[in-house]
């Protein structure tokens, strides 16, 4: 069964993983900005229970 032979597939997997992690990922991360932390305290939303007509 050729699927069980790791010779070509392991090299392809490692090459693609290294290409992604060393070349593509830093280029993509430079475009995304992270949210800066705020000192604002979180507010909780007021929730009201649903009034069921049969209770």
Automatic annotation (TrEMBL):
**Which Pfam families has this protein been placed in?**
ATP-synt_8 (PF00895)
This entry carries the following GO cellular component terms, namely: mitochondrial membrane; proton-transporting ATP synthase complex
Annotated keywords = ATP synthesis, CF(0), Hydrogen ion transport, Ion transport, Membrane, Mitochondrion, Transmembrane, Transmembrane helix, Transport
Regarding the membrane, this protein is recorded as: Single-pass membrane protein
Q: Which residues cross the membrane?
A: 6-24
From the UniProt record, which GO molecular function terms apply? proton transmembrane transporter activity
Subcellular location field: Mitochondrion membrane
What's the family? Belongs to the ATPase protein 8 family.
Record-linked PANTHER family:
ATP SYNTHASE PROTEIN 8 (PTHR39937)
Descriptive protein name? ATP synthase complex subunit 8
Q: What is the protein's species of origin?
A: Oceanites oceanicus
């Amino acid at each position: 069964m050729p699927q069980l032979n790791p010779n070509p597939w392991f090299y392809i997997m490692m090459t693609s993983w290294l290409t992604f992690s060393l070349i593509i990922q830093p280029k993509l991360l430079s475009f995304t900005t992270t949210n800066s932390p705020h000192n604002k305290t979180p507010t909780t939303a007021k929730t009201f229970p649903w009034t069921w007509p049969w209770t």
